[in-house]
């Protein structure tokens, strides 16, 4: 058995049965092994940032890692933006990077690069296999690292000769480490603060914003008069009817500071102290008052359920119903507005939809109007590197076994980063409805520019404007085999959405905003 | 004066007057400075690998560095594939990466990354500015590094507060170091070998394949009965009438080994000993006989003209005419073939055209049929990371001041890596004619797969085939504002090409092969 065979068999034995790939010459023995060993679903992406972004979206829904297959250092580099985002989302990925044969590396052939150095910038675990005999064990360790709670990027670098040489040994799965135990003192401390203080914020992030943790946090808040919010940087929120009407800390620095100004204590549940996305002249980094105290109930690598249950127990907090989100909104009409679009999304989304939200500036207020939608999952850009909305939507559809409708609300500038995702959606016949918000500019940056100086001049606009020439998203989608249509009103957008929800295939709506 | 102003003024003073950009929030003070200081041409790319690839193409033609403007570590990561290629091409780029404000970095906001670590994997020079007062000097040093012969990637990391704080000082240009002097012993040694031995190959790469060096190498070869060839990995060859009919060492390992088998000595002119692109089972890494001796006349960082002139002097080699390339081919007709396409390109290309060749497997034999075309420059992928053909074509058109026709011969799979380039071509109204070779597969990999095993099965083909759904390059180009048409015969392709050569705007031909 060659190394590649032992690798594929070990991955399958460890429960990794989906491979997002864009292979090259050095990966051909791996590809050949896939032909001979049944059980691995292979999904091709036409650029590596699509590949890695799909693996992120897959993990968020499937809650188990997929593997990738990338080609040498530069192939890894192409996918690093979305690995950075996946790391921010704390997704688990077994990131396999084929590389030059061990003996060929000293010759510095063109694709030779510091693959290990690149991988370290976006991975929690990096290992280069050097012997076919050890590849199975290395793969089992990589899967273990990827599964380590709540999920990690584990990069396994695979020189071509380690794939093709004989001597491969299939390794048994290695169970991941348990999350570090919850600190009883942290629970007691949080209970004391919640008991004694007013103006306490319980800030949720990571697994703390999933359904069960929300209910438990609400139970704590109801018993103590504290407030519950979600971190702005959140990869996956459970939302809609049956879930808490959580709001995120606003993106804008001034609004965030104002929102948090009244809190004296912040109890962090898998969250960090909230800071600005960027530093701004004359502004602090922190969004919370300098007088406020931060208390860590759980770090991101700990189980929030156990801790919140402990806190409820400590407080003797009674069970409580979640607040009712009110009446489901009606679809709005007329010229598109953020509020109208959000209402229409809430009005029309099927039960159990998945929203992949890379709406950037347009979508900042979407939450308020979608609390009363049916239960759904809302996915965000968690690392700040634009270009994950479309790949995450694609991977999420596969992570949900194509059984749930995915709605990708997508800013146009960010969409151009990884538009190749549409082709994979068409190839795999995925139930993804994409709404591209076509405003023909990097609107967020025009806002940021005005914070800096005055109105952007010609030179600045040459870097901020996407309108010359205008992008036709209908043509772009059609070019990759995805049906598409343009909408200029919310009614047109709603009609297109309704008809797309009846199809088991992707559809793109270009909404002119 | 703030830091950003001192940076822009220093760049202009140092002769850097073109900026390829995809900025974000942390770059807004730089963008604002560009509005206030005239003289910097700004070119927007809709994804960073387009931005860096354009800077590479620009350098190859303009022979002076442009700067880039990228957003934080992940923006750099997105552009690293083509920085890797630019490094392989030995292009000079002042690679400016905006980053978190110095005081904000410890807070680990989402876009915080190991920007320095990323940059080191693709740069010869990396520096993070930490004070506005020093930014001008840092910029002058970066330009110096980028201009260091034959060209280097100089990455200047620019924390936002270093841009916006006052105290900036404009720095005078710092001249780059002279190339290390040519080694007289190396010249004498080469002369002795050329004098005493048969079966000597003079292998040219880097600046050794430009026009003057070719003629000098031919003068040496004519006087000594040696052979002249170009390295396979070559970024920029002067070709056509008035230039030497140079062939490159073939890509295929067996063919390359056969081609080089008769040589006992290889004299390296800015080249390295030729090795395979990859290692293959049972094959050596080197393409030259183990008995052959390698002799370095010049390293890639030395001036080949000086050395070749010294060698001519040492050998008393007489001046000699370059061989006549024969009659210019006629345009071919019928179903597309590599030979027919090459002939038609040679038949129709305007004098002084620029070819950006990322034709991968289809174009391996193009040279033979294009020696008798008018004088032209031929650009290749020099780092092996696919996705540079379109960005390099775009940047080359700008590097040649839009005055020369650029013909981009482009494989479809590679084209999908950086198709956003077409939008910049439309925006800047560049004279680029793109011929996308649509075969709907990663043909090179199907070849490599058959080297490994047998015929690719269903799983392998799911990773190697681009035909389901088929890509429509006409739609994709139109979606980005570029006129396009499909051709199924060489005549149709020729007619479209001729009409595109009369336009000062981009045009894309989707050639079904």
TrEMBL record, chains A, B:
Keywords linked to the UniProt accession: Thiamine pyrophosphate
Thiamine pyrophosphate enzyme N-terminal TPP-binding domain sequence ranges: 1-106
A GO molecular-function descriptor: flavin adenine dinucleotide binding
UniProt keyword Methyltransferase, yes or no: no
Domain Thiamine pyrophosphate enzyme TPP-binding: 372-510
Biological process (GO), any one: small molecule metabolic process
Domain of life: Bacteria
Stated family: Belongs to the TPP enzyme family.
Matching PANTHER family: ACETOLACTATE SYNTHASE LARGE SUBUNIT ILVX-RELATED, THIAMINE PYROPHOSPHATE ENZYMES
Protein name, entry field: Decarboxylase
Species this chain originates from: Advenella kashmirensis W13003
């Amino acid at each position: 058995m060659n190394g590649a065979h032992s690798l594929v068999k070990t991955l399958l034995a460890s429960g990794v049965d989906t491979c997002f790939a864009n292979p090259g010459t050095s990966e051909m023995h791996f590809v050949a092994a896939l032909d001979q060993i049944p059980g691995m679903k292979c999904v091709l992406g036409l650029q590596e940032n699509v590949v890695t972004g799909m693996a992120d979206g897959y993990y968020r829904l499937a809650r188990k890692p997929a593997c990738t297959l990338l080609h040498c250092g530069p192939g890894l580099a192409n996918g690093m933006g979305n690995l950075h985002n996946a790391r921010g989302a704390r997704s688990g990925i077994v990131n396999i990077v084929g590389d030059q044969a061990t003996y060929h590396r000293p010759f510095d052939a063109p694709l030779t690069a510091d693959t290990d150095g690149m991988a370290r910038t976006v991975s929690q675990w990096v290992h280069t296999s050097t012997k076919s005999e050890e590849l199975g064990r290395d793969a089992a360790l990589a899967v273990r690292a990827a599964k380590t709670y709540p999920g990690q990027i584990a990069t396994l670098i695979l020189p071509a000769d380690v794939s093709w040489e004989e001597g491969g040994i299939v390794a048994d799965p290695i169970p991941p480490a348990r999350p570090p135990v919850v600190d009883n003192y942290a629970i007691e401390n949080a209970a004391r603060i919640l008991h004694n203080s007013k103006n306490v914020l319980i800030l949720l992030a990571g697994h703390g914003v999933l359904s069960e943790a929300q209910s438990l946090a609400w139970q704590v808040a109801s018993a103590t008069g504290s407030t519950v919010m979600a971190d702005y940087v959140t990869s996956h929120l459970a939302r809609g009817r049956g879930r808490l009407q959580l709001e995120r800390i606003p993106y804008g620095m001034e609004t965030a500071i104002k929102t948090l100004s009244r809190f004296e204590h912040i109890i962090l549940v898998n969250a960090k102290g909230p800071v600005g996305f960027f530093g701004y002249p004359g502004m602090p980094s922190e969004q919370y008052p300098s007088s406020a105290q931060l208390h860590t109930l759980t770090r991101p690598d700990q189980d929030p359920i156990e801790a919140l249950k402990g806190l409820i127990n400590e407080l003797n907090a009674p069970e409580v119903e979640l607040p009712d989100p009110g009446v489901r909104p009606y679809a709005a009409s007329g010229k598109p507005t953020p509020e109208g679009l959000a209402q229409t999304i809430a009005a029309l989304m099927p039960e159990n939809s998945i929203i992949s939200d890379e709406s950037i500036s347009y979508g900042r207020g979407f939450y308020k109007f979608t609390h009363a939608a049916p239960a759904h999952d809302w996915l965000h850009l968690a690392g700040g590197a634009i270009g994950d909305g479309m790949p995450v939507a694609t991977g999420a559809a596969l992570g949900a076994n194509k059984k749930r409708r995915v709605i990708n609300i997508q800013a146009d500038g960010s969409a151009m980063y990884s538009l190749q995702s549409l082709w994979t959606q068409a190839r795999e016949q995925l139930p993804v409805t994409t709404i591209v918000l076509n405003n023909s500019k990097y609107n967020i940056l025009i806002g940021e520019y005005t914070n800096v100086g005055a109105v952007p001049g010609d030179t600045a606009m040459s870097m901020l404007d996407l309108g010359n020439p205008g992008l036709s998203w209908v043509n772009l989608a059609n070019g990759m085999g995805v049906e598409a249509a343009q909408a200029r009103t919310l009614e047109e957008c709603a009609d297109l959405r309704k008809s797309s929800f009846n199809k088991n295939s992707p559809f793109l709506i270009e909404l002119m905003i």
